[in-house]
Backbone:
């Protein structure tokens, strides 16, 4: 058997490689979006707790 690949096989492998790269980029983008949403939600949650527990918290941050 020959290890040489036909041009069609080479192009198929390249296509598969780029498809996998695109999938990984999409997955990373989704992960980043989720991380941003979770961080913003937690930040808002803790700011509300701080504002409730420390009434001067918002006044200090506004200045």
Residues:
């Amino acid at each position: 058997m020959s290890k040489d690949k036909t041009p069609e096989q080479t192009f198929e492998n390249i296509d598969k490689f780029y498809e996998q790269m695109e999938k990984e980029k999409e997955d990373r983008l989704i992960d980043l979006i989720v991380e941003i949403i979770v961080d913003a939600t937690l930040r808002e949650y803790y700011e509300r707790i701080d504002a409730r527990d420390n009434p001067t918290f918002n006044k200090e941050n506004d200045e």
The helical segments are 7-53, 57-62. Residues 43 and 49 are 10 Å apart (CA to CA). The first helix runs from residue 7 to 53.
